[in-house]
Amino acid sequence: MKIGFDIISDLNLDPDDEFEWEDKATSLYLIIAGNISSDIRVIHQTLLHLTKFYQGVFYIPGSLEYESMHFYKHRNDEIRKICKSLKKVALLERHVVVINNVAILGATGWFGNRTDSGDEIEKLYKHAQNIEDVEYLRSSVEKLQLHLDIKNIVLVTHSVPGLDLFFGELPTNIGEEFQLQECLDPDSEHKITHWIYGSYNKIVDTNIDSIHYVNNSSNKTSPYWAKRIEV
């Protein structure tokens, strides 16, 4: 039995923006690939609003959620508290959720995000998180190979998985960080079927090496609709 997921990302909401999702849900579950807002109250209000229309909301924060890497841990704690207070919301930051033999595995990624900052210390923090995220994804994919009840893996990152997903239009802010696609190496059983991501300014729906890559960034496009996938 296949499961449907709605995909959204990069809402980029400001406190004065109106966000309404009534009559837009097409699935029981929603995946948010980062960049709801930099304002913690807007993040809370938006997640709460979306729980009215979905049985489950799976959320990975993006670079916008972290106004400064200097306060990375503090903001992470704030986001975790919000998600814990909302019964239908699951935070995917270095976490795995399993639904009907499908493992949803998430990490922000930090590939190509915020490297244009002039703050060298912030760059180092961001690079460290990129290394940790790649290692987490890689080790989790490896462990999930051993779980016989896991038939499919859906990866969710805010960052673009690798250089090939820029389709030749490489951004200028790519630095020393590792490509997230390195986590594909341990997928010996070929369980990874989908990779959902954000941060890219163009819609992507393509298959590369038997993996379905989907980006449905809003960037305040109007009207904006979810992209539905089935796993």
Describe the structure.
α1 (40-50) runs parallel beside α2. The radius of gyration is 16 Å and the shape is globular. The chain is α/β, with parallel strands linked by helices and 231 residues long. The chain has a single domain (4-230), classed as Purple Acid Phosphatase, chain A, domain 2, CATH 3.60.21.10. The protein starts with a strand and ends with a strand. It is built from 3 helices and 11 strands. The longest helix has 25 residues, at 120-144. The chain has helices spanning 40-50, 72-85, 120-144; strands at residues 4-8, 29-32, 56-59, 89-91, 95-99, 102-107, 152-157, 192-197, 204-208, 211-215, 227-230. A hairpin with a 2-residue loop joins β5 and β6. The protein has a 6-stranded mixed sheet, covered by helices on one side. It has a 5-stranded mixed sheet with strand order 4-3-2-1-11. The model has no long low-confidence stretch (mean pLDDT 93).
Question: What is this structure, in a nutshell?
Answer:
22% of the residues lie in helices and 23% in strands.
Please outline the helices and strands.
Elements: E1 4-8, E2 29-32, H1 40-50, E3 56-59, H2 72-85, E4 89-91, E5 95-99, E6 102-107, H3 120-144, E7 152-157, E8 192-197, E9 204-208, E10 211-215, E11 227-230
Parallel strand pairs: 1-2, 2-3, 3-4, 6-7, 7-8, 8-10
Antiparallel strand pairs: 1-11, 5-6, 9-10
Helix pairs in contact: 1-2
